[in-house]
Amino acid sequence: MAKLRVVLVLAALVLGLAGCKKESPTQPPAAVPPPGSQAQTPAEGVVSVVNISLGKALGPDKKVAAATDTFAKGDTIYAVVETTGSGKAPLKAKWTYHRGDKTAPVSEDSKTISASGPTATEFHVSKPDGWPLGDYQVEILLNDKSVGTKKFVVK
Amino acid sequence: MSEEMPDFSNVESGSSSTAAVIYEVKPGDSLSKIAKAHYGNANDWNRIFEANKDILKDPDKIYPGQKLKIPPK
Question: For chain A, which domains are there?
Answer without folding.
Answer: 47-154 (2.60.40.10)
